[in-house]
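Structure ticket #2291
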Amino acid sequence: MKISRLKLKVEMAKRDMVQAELAQKSNVSRQTINGILAGRRCSLETGQKIADALKIELKDILQEV
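Resolution: structure written out below.
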């Protein structure tokens, strides 16, 4: 699955959240967060953890095809 880098950055900015904080709240490594922000794909489980940490729906940060 591909998370939109722009949408993720916007959601993080809305919450004044940095990568390390998102990693901690989502229980995903900071390296994984960094990879997603660099354009790498992630698993459905990882995407859901990130969405849950941001208190949003997963579809709100998915990259549109």
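Closing remark: The chain has a mean pLDDT of 97.
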